[in-house]
Amino acid sequence: RWQKIFMFPLWSKMAVFWNKMFLTIIVLLIVLFLDAIREVRKYSSVHVNEKAANVNSSAFDHIQMKLFRSQRNLYLSGFSLFLWLVLRRTVTLLTQLAKEMASHAALETQVNDATEAAKKYMAENERLQEALSGKGDGKKKESTDATEAKLKEEVEHLKAELQKTSNAFHKAKTEVAAVKKQSEGLRREYDHLMKKFEELQQSLNKAEDKKDL
Prior knowledge:
Layout: H1 2-6, H2 9-53, H3 57-132, H4 138-212
Helix pairs in contact: 2-3, 3-4
Function: May play a role in anterograde transport of membrane proteins from the endoplasmic reticulum to the Golgi.
Subcellular location: Endoplasmic reticulum membrane
Keywords: Apoptosis, Coiled coil, Endoplasmic reticulum, ER-Golgi transport, Membrane, Protein transport, Transmembrane, Transmembrane helix, Transport
């Protein structure tokens, strides 16, 4: 059902737009991050100079508030940039996992078809061998021998195809397991980062409340 939903032509038409949007947001977050670094350096130096000059308390508090806001913007823009990249990587891994699962299902169907065909030819070969055990004239026996040789060649060819398909199936299964493991690790890392981000934001809110008081 989900494959049918995501196979709509509308998504493929919007893919270019979403890629451009993602790159635009990345550039915007990088600009904000660099601007926050510049503001932190600026107000850090001003904070030190004003503290050394022993100016009045209102100007010092104003500079301290500016420094706090620039640091807050630095943390927010940095975490947003990092989490946006993590989200992009997660989407990429999920897409790869879906493709590997689809190829896994196709290979499994192909293996089953090849197995059924091999069983069919083996049954025909057994019937021909039973027919050879009876009496017959020389021409019929030669024709039966040629048919049996042809069937043996086809059986060997099918066995080779079956082995090849089976190897591809096991390879795809291993790749799917690796992608699943990588996706689970990334999901755990994302949850851990979100927890750290919430703790940092709570500490920033508490610090801002103290500054307001």
